[in-house]
Every structure is written in structure tokens, then in C-alpha cells.
């Protein structure tokens, strides 16, 4: 089947669950880029199960993207030719019991950080500066201010869209690395639990306020997705970019931030392709002048040379599903 045929069959299998040509730019902090061919709002595991059954009915690899707060995504102007999922408010709840904070996959990390601090729990304050969701933080092993997601992660629940099963994991399964985790493209984070240290509310809230002040002083506002490149062992990426006199460098509607060289800003109404061209230019100049090849931390979606991860689902019986209609039916059950 061609890629277009795969999406057509999937659209039929998803039925009313899916919307076509959903704009993605507004769902990212860059606020640029084109639409997703198919979009599904997910507010519970039943919907994830229905998506699994639709994928199994197609039986072919489907490009799949879970969109969190979109704070680490650059979606090409041509858009994303695949299925994008967004988690809704029912998966954004936060509960605190004793010293454990359970946050839904769609909950904001800054909200989890503030709620934990207000409850006198220590260890998640760093997350107030990361404008992503819990799911995005797990996928990226987001971190800052000397800590990261793995630091306090205790347990988490995923739904495996390939196998169609939910799984609960101990933190040992997480296998964190710098801005990487063991989560695969088929794994949707439903919730995560962080095990924190009981402490002083005043001290926790003061640290949160300090981090917010530090961010305001050192990082630009506007449309960006934080650090564009991971820090190589040699030096901070921003330092290398600055050394190459690229601070403030502009290409079309994109500019290397004059405040922090590892941030690329997009103008309002700008173009994702301009951001991408500037990212490539920075990489080339830094490689030529310093010998260091920078690796993007930003996830590039829908560009011709950045193939999207695909998911191929098998029906739970292990048999290829033959009924596209059956897969989309019963989305609520
Ligand atoms: C101003 C600014 C500052 C930043 N500072 C930092 C920082 O200090 N440290 C840092 O690490 N990052 C930082 N970032 C980057 C970004 O906030 C993190 O990478 C964050 O973890 C991304 O979360 P998200 O929900 O926005 O994910 P998205 O950008 O939407 O997606 C990122 C990845 O996570 C996956 N994903 C999202 N939700 C789920 C889910 N529920 N289940 C499974 N996979 C999911 C996506 O499929 C994608 O692969 C910054 C960004 C900005 C804009």
C-alpha cells in the first residue's frame, strides 16, 4: 500500500475518532508548521485501545506522533503525513498521596513542580522551567538545574499502541540517558509517579521562584522550543555557537537568539522551514569552525530527511485484523 492509501484506510478505521488536516503549529511552542494528516483527541485508555485496533486493521507501519505541549517539536511547513495524538484534560490530573506525586501524561511539568513544592515535597522544583508535559518529559528525560526526570521517577504507566496493552513500569524500565529514555514510538505515557522527599514548603517554593527568575534572565521569550542542540562533551552548545559569531544570525523568519545562542526564535507567522534552514546553517558553521558536530535536541517532524517513527500494530489475537470497520467501532468501550 502507498503511504496515502495507508492513511486513507486508517482514516476509515478510525471513523469519527479522527479529524483530517489538523493544524499542528498552534499546538507547538514554535507556533509554525503545517497540519497532521490525521488527529485523534485522547482522553482515556479506551480511546488508545480504539486507536490500536484501527492501526491493527491497517496492518501496515503508520507514522505516529504523540503531541504533548509541543515544546520540543518543529513541524515542517508541509505538515506531518501520519497519525498525531493529543492527550486531553482527563489525563492531566495530579494527585498527591504522602510523598508520591502521580501526574497524568498530559499534566504540565511546571504545574507538577509547583503543586509538589506547595505540598512541601522536594525534588521536582527544577521542572518549573520545562514547559512540557509529563509524557514529553519522560520521552525526552527532560532535565535542568542539576536534575532530570529520571531523578525522582518511581513508576509509570504506558499504553502500547502496537500490542494494544497497558503496562505499569518500575523506574528500572526507564533506562535514562541524556535527553533519551527507553520509551518507543508506540508507547503513550498515561501517568507517572514521582517519589519526592518531604521538606519545607518555604524552601521548596523559594527554589521554584529562583528557577523562574533565572530562566527569565537567561532565556528568551517568544516562539522557540528551548535548546536546539544537546550539549556535546566539549562545551555547551550555546558557547560553541557564540564562538562562531552566530548569535543574532537571521535567515528569513528565523533568528539565533541574541540572548541565548542555543535558542532559535521564529517570527510570528514565520516558517518552520526557515527555522530548519537556520539550524542546518548553524550546524555546518560550528562543524567547520570547531570540528564539533552538534546533534539536535529539537525533534524535527515531517521534513523530507527526517523520517517519522512508525508503528505497526498486530491485533491482540496475533492475527492480522481483517475488518477496518470493526477496529474503529466501539471507540468508547
Ligand atoms: C522555553 C523552553 C525551555 C526549555 N527548557 C528545557 C530544559 O531546561 N530541559 C529540557 O530537557 N527541555 C527543555 N525544553 C524542551 C521541552 O520542554 C522538553 O523536551 C519537554 O520534555 C517536551 O515535552 P512536551 O510535552 O512539550 O513534548 P512534545 O514536544 O510535544 O514532544 C516531545 C516528545 O515527547 C513525546 N511525547 C509527548 N507526550 C507524550 C506522551 N504522553 N507519551 C509518550 N510520548 C510523548 C512526543 O511524541 C515527542 O517524541 C524547553 C523548551 C522551551 C520552549
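-> sequence recovered:
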Amino acid at each position: 500500500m502507498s503511504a496515502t492509501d495507508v492513511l486513507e484506510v486508517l482514516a476509515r478505521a478510525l471513523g469519527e475518532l479522527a479529524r483530517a488536516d489538523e493544524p499542528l503549529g498552534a499546538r507547538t511552542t514554535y507556533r509554525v508548521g503545517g497540519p497532521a494528516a490525521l488527529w485523534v483527541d485522547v482522553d482515556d485508555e479506551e480511546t488508545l485501545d480504539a486507536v490500536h485496533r484501527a492501526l491493527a486493521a491497517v496492518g501496515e507501519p503508520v507514522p505516529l506522533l504523540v503531541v504533548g505541549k509541543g515544546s520540543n517539536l518543529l513541524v515542517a511547513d508541509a505538515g506531518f503525513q501520519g497519525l498525531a495524538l493529543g492527550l486531553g484534560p482527563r489525563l492531566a490530573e495530579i494527585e498527591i498521596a504522602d510523598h508520591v506525586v502521580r501526574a497524568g501524561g498530559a499534566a504540565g511539568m511546571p504545574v507538577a513542580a509547583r503543586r509538589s513544592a506547595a505540598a512541601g515535597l522536594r525534588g521536582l522544583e527544577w521542572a518549573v522551567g520545562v514547559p512540557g508535559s509529563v509524557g514529553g518529559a519522560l520521552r525526552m528525560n527532560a532535565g535542568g538545574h542539576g536534575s532530570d526526570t529520571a531523578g525522582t521517577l518511581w513508576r509509570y504507566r504506558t499504553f502500547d499502541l502496537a500490542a494494544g496493552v497497558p503496562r505499569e513500569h518500575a523506574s528500572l524500565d526507564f533506562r535514562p540517558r541524556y535527553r533519551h529514555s527507553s520509551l518507543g514510538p508506540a508507547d503513550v505515557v498515561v501517568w507517572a509517579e514521582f517519589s519526592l522527599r518531604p521538606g519545607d514548603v518555604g524552601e521548596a517554593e523559594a527554589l521554584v521562584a529562583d528557577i523562574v527568575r533565572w530562566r527569565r534572565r537567561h532565556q528568551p521569550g517568544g516562539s522557540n522550543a528551548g535548546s536546539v542542540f544537546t550539549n556535546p562533551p566539549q562545551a555547551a552548545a550555546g558557547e560553541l555557537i557564540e564562538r562562531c559569531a552566530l548569535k543574532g544570525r537571521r535567515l528569513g523568519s528565523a533568528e539565533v537568539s541574541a540572548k541565548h545562542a542555543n535558542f532559535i526564535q521564529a517570527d510570528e507567522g514565520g516558517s518552520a522551514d526557515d527555522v530548519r534552514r537556520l539550524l542546518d546553517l548553524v550546524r555546518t558553521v560550528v562543524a567547520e569552525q570547531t570540528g564539533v558536530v552538534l546533534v539536535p535536541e529539537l525533534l524535527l517532524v515531517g521534513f523530507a530527511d527526517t523520517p517519522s517513527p512508525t508503528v505497526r500494530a498486530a491485533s491482540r489475537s496475533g492475527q492480522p485484523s481483517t475488518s477496518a470497520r470493526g477496529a474503529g467501532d466501539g471507540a468508547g468501550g
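Residues 29, 65-73, 87, 105, 129-133, 135-137, 139-140, 142-144, 183, 187-189, 219, 224-226, 299 surround flavin-adenine dinucleotide (CB under 6 Å).
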